[in-house]
Design goal:
mainly alpha; 8 helices; 0% strand
């Protein structure tokens, strides 16, 4: 969610709440709708606290998911770069092919994988690249102990890459289910609307409008924050971007050029 949109939602909710209490205030009896507002205030405090505890719990889970998605993306990029360097002991031809497959993998993760995650899933283009890359690795000739060790190490790193990719894709669909969002939204409406029962025509209108606006800002800000953390790959400010994979790609392409290799054409490497 873009910052301007988040600010618009929060300000809009505060303004709408302020208008609501001013409308209710015109018909409210002197001294609020309650004969004794103290017990009502105590009940509202308990209900509001319970609701904010629920929001805090969901926020904590969403924050853990957001942090985990970022870590997994970095681990995938790290494993990809390590795989690129691990092919050194292989024969020139299979080594070059695996290096090119890894370069294409990084390119397609950036250009296809991330847009697909914004839609909540993985990319078939990246899936096809993984298949082609692993098939190429299975055909690498192993002639001595050094190559055998490199071969095993490469597949070990490939498993780390696979786990990182699957973990970040798993976070793409969002962690907070629809029923939880329904509960959060209903709770937010109740928490804000309940302030209208404390409308008192004897109080200053600005004071009461400010009171409900403050409640609306806090409640809606919490929901907006959860929404942001629940969609970690959206193309907005603060979202997780393929920064680590971009660095990995730049490093691999630089090493590839320094070895005098031609520019990689990914279309020619798909099997």
């Amino acid at each position: 969610m873009e910052p301007w949109l988040a600010a618009l939602i929060i300000v809009g909710a505060a303004a709408l709440s302020a208008v609501a209490i001013l409308v209710v205030r015109r018909r409210a009896p002197a001294g609020t709708w309650f004969e004794d507002p103290i017990p009502a205030g105590a009940v509202y405090t308990v209900a509001g606290t319970a609701y904010m505890v629920i929001v805090a719990f969901v926020f904590f889970i969403a924050f853990e998911s957001y942090g985990g998605a970022k870590v997994e993306a970095e681990e995938e990029a790290t494993a990809t770069l390590a795989m690129f360097h691990a092919v050194g002991p292989f024969e020139p031809a299979p080594r070059a092919e695996l290096e090119e497959q890894l370069i294409c993998y990084a390119r397609e993760v950036i250009s296809h994988g991330w847009p697909a995650m914004r839609r909540g899933g993985g990319s078939s283009v990246v899936d096809a690249r993984v298949v082609a890359m692993e098939q190429a690795a299975e055909e690498v000739p192993v002639n001595d102990a050094k190559q055998a060790a490199a071969y095993e190490h490469w597949f070990s790193l490939n498993e780390e890459r696979r786990q990182g990719r699957q973990a970040r894709i798993g976070e793409a669909g969002g962690l907070v289910p629809s029923v939880v969002w329904l509960i959060l939204i209903i709770g937010a409406v109740v928490a804000v609307a309940s302030v209208c029962f404390f409308a008192d025509p004897r109080e200053r209108a600005l004071t009461q409008a400010g009171m409900i606006a403050a409640v609306a800002i806090i409640v809606v800000s919490g929901l907006v924050l959860v929404r942001f953390l629940d969609k970690p790959y959206e193309d907005t400010s603060g979202s997780i971007k393929p920064t680590a994979m971009t660095r990995t790609l730049e490093q691999m392409e630089r090493d590839h050029r320094e070895r005098g290799r031609a520019v990689v054409s990914c279309a020619d490497l798909t099997r």
